[in-house]
Amino acid sequence: MALRVVNCVPFDSPMSLPDSSPVIRPSLSDRIPGGGSADAILDRFVEWVREGGIELYPVQEQALLELMAGQHLILGTPTGSGKSLVALGLHFKAMCEGQRSFYTSPIKALASQKFFSLCDDFGADNVGMLTGDASINPAAPVICCTAEVLANMALRQGAATPVPYVIMDEFHYYADVTRGVAWQIPLLELPNCTFLLMSATLGDTSEVQRMLRERTGREVALVESAERPVPLDYEYRKTPLHETIEELLKQAKAPIYIVNFTQRECAERAQALTSANVCSREERSRIQEALGGFQFDSPYGKEIGRFIRFGIGVHHAGLLPRYRRLVEQLSQRGLLKVICGTDTLGVGVNIPIRTVLFSKLCKFDGEKVTLLSSREFKQIAGRAGRKGYDDRGSVVSQAPEHMIEKRRAAASGAKKRAAKKKPPERGFVSWNRSTFERLIASAPETLRSRFRVTHGTMVNVLQRELEGGGVGGSYRALVDLIGRSHESERSKARLRRDAAVLFRALRRAGIVEIVRDGAGKRRIRVSEALQSDFSLHHTLSLYLVEALSVLDPKSPEYALEVLSLVEAILEDPRPILLAQQNKLRGELVAKLKAEGVPYEERMRQLDDVTHPKPGAEFIYASFEIFADAHPWVGAASIRPKSIAREIFEGYYGFDAYVRHYKLPRVEGLLLRYLNQTYTTLMQTVPESARTQEVYDMLAFFGAILTRVDSSLLEEWERLVRAGLSPEVQGTEESRPDFDLARQPRALAARVRAELHRLLRALATGDLEEAERCVRQDPHDFWSAERFARALEPFFEDYGELVFTPQARQTHNTVLKSTGARTWDVQQVLVDPEGDNLWCVQGAIDLEGETSPTGPLVRLHRIGT
Question: Is the whole-model pTM more than 0.85?
Answer without folding.
Answer: no
